[in-house]
Design a protein that fits this description.
Elements: H1 3-19, H2 23-36, E1 43-49, E2 57-63, E3 72-75, H3 81-88, H4 91-98, E4 102-106, H5 118-123, E5 128-135, E6 147-154, H6 161-195, H7 198-205, E7 214-226, H8 229-234, H9 238-258, E8 262-267, E9 270-275, H10 280-307, E10 315-331, E11 334-340, H11 342-357, E12 361-364, H12 365-369, H13 373-377, E13 379-386, E14 393-399, H14 402-405, H15 407-418
Helix pairs in contact: 1-2, 1-6, 2-6, 6-7, 9-10, 10-15
């Protein structure tokens, strides 16, 4: 590749990296432009580790022919199972072990077929593979994301040639930098969603990071906690406590997210969430749908845990509606993006009253009053109570007991919350 087209491709990679072009589009554009300038790439693969609660990393690939393979994929931990076996048989593992940054493999050498996928490459007509491992410095490492791996194949009998290899040596690191930039943006979004919540993370990533930046909103609040979790945990082996909490947190968070809610905070075995909508009656029905789904999730979870001989429990849920301040609270260098206000304290007190009245769900009168007539009929009063630390007494409501005992009523309620 001549200097001018090489510089043109470098400029394209830099501009698209700054623009935020997705990784798979970067790889495709890179390969197509290389081919147009005489570097006959027949297959390209770029792999980079990431920070994610489930996946260890992502890969992006391009083929010169039609294929049913997706142009991106994710992979799990490489310490065990088939993924670990495939990793140890890869050329990248070998390169890391031997400290190589580049390897050029002639696929006519049958010894090269020991590397995973190389025999498949040869069968598909690829003749040579050039592999790179570009390592990051200590300051550029993020978790396990410490290098970019790439494979480039050609169908030419003589390989890429010295000129083509020289161009790849210059260009692939620039591609790696653009992909690393995109990967770090993905990591920021992932960390935000995982630790802050979906909507909250979007607020922060849009720049709402200064202390005191809040907005006053009206929202439906959810607070749930597990029954007897302290006594159950005291009887468990220490290694069982976190899986126990995780199982029930998954059941509640899935239900809240499925109904369009936002999980704001995990407090031990408790969950604080909110449901917002321009129409508060819709937000309330969404909260009831989440509670209904939560019970179903727990039934499935408890059946599984019982079959495994592991402890089970249920949960209390409080629902309320009110105005809150939503935004950044804390110090200059340690902020929490959350909701505060009397309504938050009130919903936690409502949830704690579930133990006293022996009900799984309690709602405030304000929550019930905003529902339509059908919804109000499904909630019955449990009495009038003064909540600790909250001025004045109010009626608290729970689901009509017929929902648990009458299949017809239960079906009608399920259709109502499905909305």
């Amino acid at each position: 590749m001549q200097p001018v087209p090489r510089l043109r491709l470098v400029n394209w990679l830099v501009s698209q990296g700054l623009t935020g072009l997705p990784e798979s589009d970067l790889v495709r554009g890179f390969c197509e432009r290389c081919c147009a300038e005489g570097i006959a790439i027949s297959y390209g693969l770029v792999v980079i580790d990431t920070l994610h609660p489930i996946f260890e990393g992502r890969g992006f690939r391009w083929h010169d022919t039609e294929t049913n393979q997706p142009d991106s994929f994710e992979y799990g931990p490489t310490e065990e199972g088939e993924v670990a076996d495939g990793w140890r048989r890869s050329i990248f593992y070998d390169m890391l072990e031997q400290g190589h940054e580049q390897r050029v493999i002639d696929l006519s050498d049958t010894a090269s077929r020991r590397y995973s996928r190389f025999e498949e490459f040869a069968a598909q007509g690829h003749k040579h593979v050039t592999s790179f491992v570009h390592r990051f410095g200590e300051a550029g490492t993020m978790g396990q994301m410490d290098c970019v791996y790439s494979n480039w194949t050609t169908r030419r009998d003589d390989g890429f040639g010295e000129e083509g290899l020289a161009a790849l040596r210059d260009l692939v690191p620039v591609l790696g930098l653009a992909i690393k930039s995109a990967a770090q943006a993905d990591i920021a979004r992932t960390l935000g969603r995982v630790y802050l919540g979906r909507e909250t993370s979007e607020q922060v990533l849009r720049g709402k990071m200064s202390r005191g930046i809040t907005e006053r909103i009206k929202t439906v609040l959810w607070f749930s906690d597990l029954r007897s979790s302290t006594s159950i945990s005291a009887q468990m082996e220490p290694g069982e406590i976190i899986p126990f909490l995780n199982d029930y947190a998954q059941a509640s968070i899935d239900a809240i997210h499925d109904a369009g809610g936002e999980v704001l905070k995990l407090i031990g075995d408790g969950v604080l969430a909110m449901f917002t909508n321009e129409d508060m009656s819709v937000a309330k029905r969404n909260a009831l749908r989440a509670e209904h789904r939560f019970r179903h999730n727990m039934d499935v979870l408890n059946a599984r845990r019982s079959a495994e001989g592991r402890p089970t429990t249920t949960a209390h849920v409080g629902l309320h509606i009110g105005e809150v301040f939503y935004g950044n609270i804390g110090s200059d260098d340690r902020l929490d993006f959350t909701v505060v206000g009397p309504a938050v304290n009130e919903v936690s007190r409502i949830a704690s009253m579930c133990r006293s009245v022996d009900r799984d769900l309690l709602t405030s009168s304000a929550f019930r009053n905003g529902l339509d007539a059908t919804g109000r009929n499904y909630l019955v009063s449990t009495g009038r109570f003064a909540l600790r630390g909250i001025g004045g007494a109010q009626d608290l409501y729970t689901l009509d007991p017929d929902i648990l005992t009458d299949e017809v009523v239960a079906g009608k309620y399920a259709r109502y919350v499905a909305g």
